[in-house]
UniProtKB/TrEMBL annotation, chain A:
Protein name (Swiss-Prot/TrEMBL): Putative exporter
Record field: transmembrane: 249-266, 273-294, 300-318, 330-350, 362-384, 414-430, 618-635, 642-665, 671-689, 696-716, 722-744
Keyword tags: Membrane, Transmembrane, Transmembrane helix
A single Gene Ontology CC term: plasma membrane
SUPFAM superfamilies: Multidrug efflux transporter AcrB transmembrane domain
Coiled-coil positions: none
InterPro entries in the cross-refs: Mycobact_MmpL
Automatic annotation (TrEMBL), chain B:
Keywords of the record: Protein transport, Signal, Transport
Transmembrane domains' residue ranges: none
SUPFAM superfamilies: Prokaryotic lipoproteins and lipoprotein localization factors
Keyword set includes Protein transport: yes
Pfam families in UniProt: LolA
Name of the protein in its database record: Outer membrane lipoprotein carrier protein LolA
Protein transport recorded as keyword: yes
Domain of life: Bacteria
InterPro entries according to UniProt: LolA/LolB/LppX, OM_lipoprot_carrier_LolA-like
Length: 760, 187
């Protein structure tokens, strides 16, 4: 009767899974997988005004940068570089990557926008000359006028070349100038052309990235030896990251599948392999379906972690299969299986409590996947016959190891003390939370990005001051004060450079002062200047032009006509200026310039801070989960079982301590330790709950081996996150596996004492 | 730039391509003697100014640099190289235009350097030879237009004539201003 009911349930579960597969298929039709590293990261907790504003500015800057794809094409001469720039431009252009070109009108539009406000604008050098020695300025104007190179003179509109000089001073701020229709720069005899693309739609969208990494590699391969190009833009990094993740998910996934298959085939026979894989497959199917329906877009790294579930989900299956085959009844096994599930869910579920998008995805994926694998194991495995499940010769060493290691009797109270000390240590273990740990780009790409930024003399957008104000005058005043202080720091060599909105649109106060200087020049020198040109009548016209142009360049006008959105943006109530700072040598003296409405934003440091915060939180929650799980297990299995239950905990904390002291302990290492705990607890539960230790030890070893294969493959990954993860799990499991036999043999529970006799 | 402008430019380019190569070769043959030094007189017509601006002086080419010494109406020295155009006063630089930042200045500098040095190859990189006239066995006249569209919007036309070496150079700007320079080798 039971058998029949069991069969019905198993079939029903199978049908259920078919429906679930249908749901997955429907959803995957146009589902978007995410590859951006940033989307894995938590958003700042917006408690104070400074962080709120910084989040606003970060969003503004990322929106700008996300949509940018830049390439710098260099060659020994102008023709070759232009030719290759055009070729590369047309190769990369697509409806989602629109090439941005410059032409004559762009250049004139720029100067035309400034022209109406020319009497309010002065190059820094001219300003100094006007103030200190106007005679010299006049002499220079005259020389420019008579020079064969002095083109574009406008006697009335710009009598003393001051506006031309201002435009030149702006042009000098950028190493680029427009030549042959390309933004161009020359460096060490090579001519570089800047090829720009604007991305349409979502920058990290699969469409925008589609084939970009392959395309760039192909183009690099086609280049003649003396032509080079460097790429820049988040989309390039995302494209490479996504490609690598995709490749690794397939190699790791496939590799662990084959490895695990081979192992199970050898140890448990063909029938079991199919059954166990069905359990894991069911788990993955359930996890995938629930995750894609729950989350707008699932991250590729989540899938990579998910792939490792093959190793963990199979854990229950192996234990159940081995136990059932050696004559146990499911009803007897069920409490142990349930206890194993609960502790694993506890370990994985902890991740979901963090406000960290990446972790939440992984938590849901893992928990649902484990539940699916567990249910399938309970429903399907009892239907299998016992054929073929006998320890094979090649696994004899597993039993040899068990019988050789000496018993290690430990007093539960001493173990409890040790556990308390270990947990206290774990609570505060220091870690390494640099964002670069999560870098998924190949080193060559990072080097390219650096060369690119150096050539373009662009600093990183990582550190900047954010100046907020309610009005233009307030913003100008704060910016001017800040610029002065930064100039002092620059003079002392504490920072290498900074850029300001005022380079492009001087403060209003400064503009009025410029105009006063120019007015006095036109009044005192205009007449004699035009007399020397033989046109005294023009002096009046020139003065008239100055009088008629009485509008300074306001912020509203500037941002509407010649936006430089990297320096300025506004929210509904406030105006914001961004002052990027480069080459910060002394962070504290830069930090010291912060004030009420002047915030210093250090993005890498902020992200590192966040990572650190969440890593510590995860450590704390893990410690809590350990205490909870241990209490539960001690309550069910008895106080005398504590030494064995402590093995996974102490192994995990040992690995964490070793990592923290000699390598680096990151958030992702901590996650990996949760896996060690999950697998370790399972083994201990079965050893303590099962009747005979021999099949349990065999199952435990198989399960450690299968996990070892899947996580060992992860350790080979070039993506740091996955590498950390694999390596940590591998070390942890090895420790757990090697410690369990001695500690088990030393236990003083009745069951162990009975078992000890027949399995040595 | 509209599509039509591009098409017109393209067709025009094709038509002129056939003759251009011959003309450049012919120019190279005739413009072979570089000017090492000499005298110049310059007349600038600037829109809005009733009188032309006249100046004269001497020039010297040394180490790829053209030193342009104005003597009248006032003394001043301009040093022109491919990378920089600088104003000098009593052996110190008082003002400089970076070629990178000012393509117009850079092009004019390269134009003068190339013509004075008799380097037709350098001209061909920047200009299109729109007209080339052989006057007699030795003498020639040419009209150039910048290849770069941004520049062509400012510097509309360049004319030069000479025999063994460059004798006269003139250029016109989009605003209607013209500069006419006469050169003669130092006697």
């Amino acid at each position: 009767m039971i058998r029949m009911g069991q069969r019905h349930l198993a079939v029903a579960w199978g049908l259920c899974l078919c429906l679930i597969a249908l749901c997955l298929w429907v959803r995957l039709e146009n589902y978007r997988f995410d590859a951006s590293l940033l989307s894995l990261l938590p958003t700042a907790q917006q408690h104070d005004l400074g962080t709120q504003r910084a989040a606003l500015a970060n969003k503004h800057l990322t929106d700008l940068l996300d949509r940018e794809l830049l390439l710098l094409v260099g060659a020994p001469d102008a023709d070759t570089s232009a030719e290759w720039a055009a070729r590369i431009q047309s190769a990369i252009a697509s409806p989602t990557r629109q090439p941005q070109t410059v032409d004559a009108t762009d250049v004139t539009q720029f100067s035309e926008a400034y022209f109406p406000h020319r009497y309010f604008l002065l190059a820094e050098q001219d300003r100094a000359l006007l103030r200190d020695s106007p005679d010299q300025l006049l002499r220079r104007a005259q020389q420019q006028l008579y020079s064969p190179m002095g083109a574009g003179y406008q006697p009335i509109a710009d009598s003393f070349w001051l506006f031309q000089n201002f435009l030149q001073s702006l042009a000098e701020q950028s190493p680029l100038s427009v030549q042959d229709g390309w933004p161009t720069l020359t460096h060490e005899g090579r001519v570089y052309r800047l090829v720009r693309f604007r991305l349409q739609g979502e920058a990290f969208d699969a469409n925008a990235q589609a084939g970009l990494a392959d395309l760039i590699d192909q183009l690099q391969a086609q280049l003649p030896t003396d032509v080079t190009f460097f790429s820049s833009g988040l989309v390039v990094h995302a494209a490479y990251g996504a490609r690598m993740a995709r490749q690794e998910i397939s190699t790791v996934g496939l590799g662990s599948l084959i490895g695990v298959l081979a192992l199970l085939w050898m140890s448990l026979g063909r029938g079991s392999v199919i059954a166990l894989l069905s359990c894991v497959g069911a788990g993955l199917l359930l996890a995938m379906t629930v995750s894609v329906w729950w989350f707008e877009s699932l991250h590729l790294i989540t899938l990579a972690f998910g792939a490792t579930l093959i190793g963990v989900g199979i854990d229950y299956g192996i234990h159940a299969r081995v136990a059932l085959a050696s004559g146990e009844r499911l009803r007897v096994l069920l409490p142990a299986l349930l206890l194993g599930l609960v502790t694993s869910l506890l370990a994985y579920g902890i991740q979901g409590t963090m406000p960290f998008p990446g972790l939440q995805q992984m938590a849901l994926f893992s928990c649902v996947g484990l539940l699916g694998a567990w249910l399938s194991a309970c429903l399907w495995l009892p239907l299998l016959t016992d054929k073929g499940v006998h320890p094979r010769k090649i696994f004899q060493w597993v039993h040899h190891y068990w019988s050789r290691v000496p018993a290690l009797p430990l007093k539960p109270q001493w173990v409890a003390l040790l556990l308390i000390a270990a947990l206290a240590l774990f609570w505060q273990l220091p870690g390494d939370d640099r964002l670069s740990n999560l870098q998924t780009s190949p080193a060559s790409l990072v080097a390219q990005e650096q060369t690119f930024q150096q050539l373009l003399q662009r600093g990183s957008k990582g550190q900047y001051f954010l100046v907020a104000a309610d009005s233009e005058a307030e913003l100008d005043a704060r910016l001017m004060a800040l610029n002065e202080q930064l100039a002092v720091l620059q003079g002392r060599g504490l920072i290498s450079d900074f850029q300001s909105l005022h380079d492009w649109r001087p403060a209003l106060e400064r503009q009025w002062h410029n105009r006063a200087l120019q007015e006095s020049l036109y009044q005192t020198q205009g007449q004699s200047w035009f007399e020397s040109l033989g046109a005294p009548a023009l002096a009046n016209d020139a003065r008239q032009a100055l009088v008629e142009s009485a509008q300074p360049l306001t912020l509203a006008r500037w941002s509407a006509q010649m936006p430089q959105p990297q320096f300025f943006f506004k929210s509904t109530e406030e105006l914001f200026a961004i002052v990027p700072v480069q080459g910060v040598i002394d962070a504290s003296s830069v930090q010291a310039l912060s004030a009420d409405n002047i915030h210093y934003v250090d993005r890498p440091a902020t992200v590192a801070g966040l990572l650190s915060h969440y890593r510590l939180q995860l450590q704390h929650w893990t410690a809590v989960a350990i205490v909870l799980a241990l209490s539960l297990l001690v309550w069910r299995l008895g106080w005398s079982a504590l030494p064995l239950l402590a093995v996974p905990v102490l192994a995990a904390i040992t690995v964490a301590t070793v990592l923290s002291l000699w390598f680096s302990l990151t958030l992702f290492h901590c996650l990996a330790l949760l896996l060690v705990l999950g697998i370790g607890f399972d083994s201990c539960i079965f050893l303590l709950a099962g009747a005979q230790p021999k099949p349990v030890w065999y199952a435990t070893s198989l399960s450690v081996l299968t996990s070892g294969i899947s996580f060992g493959l992860l350790a080979l990954s070039e993506t740091p996150v996955l590498h950390f993860f694999g390596l940590t799990v591998l070390m942890g499991l090895l420790l757990v596996w090697s410690a369990i036999p001695s500690v088990y043999k030393g236990l003083a529970t009745d069951r162990v004492l009975v078992n000890r006799a027949d399995y040595k | 730039m509209g599509v039509r402008a591009f098409v017109v430019g393209f067709v025009f380019g094709l038509l002129s391509l056939a003759t251009a190569a011959d003309d450049w070769a012919s120019l190279t043959k005739r413009l072979h003697a570089p000017l090492a030094s000499g005298e110049f007189s310059q007349v600038k017509h600037i829109g809005g100014l009733p009188l032309p601006l006249q100046s004269s002086g001497i020039f010297v080419v040394e180490n790829g640099q053209l030193r342009w010494l104005t003597l009248l109406p006032f003394e001043s020295e301009l040093r022109i190289s491919v990378t920089e155009v600088a104003q000098w006063e009593q052996d110190s630089k008082v003002w400089a235009a970076d070629a990178q930042a000012q393509p117009m200045v850079a092009t004019l500098a390269k134009l003068m350097l190339a013509l004075v040095a008799g380097d037709a190859g350098a001209l061909a990189q920047l200009f299109q030879l729109t007209q080339f006239e052989v006057i007699d066995e030795k003498c020639w006249a040419l009209t150039l237009r910048p290849l770069d569209s941004v520049l062509a919007a400012h510097l509309t036309e360049v004319q030069a004539r000479g025999c063994e070496y460059l004798a006269q150079l003139s250029f016109g700007e989009a605003g209607g201003d013209t500069t006419l320079i006469q050169l003669s080798p130092q006697s």
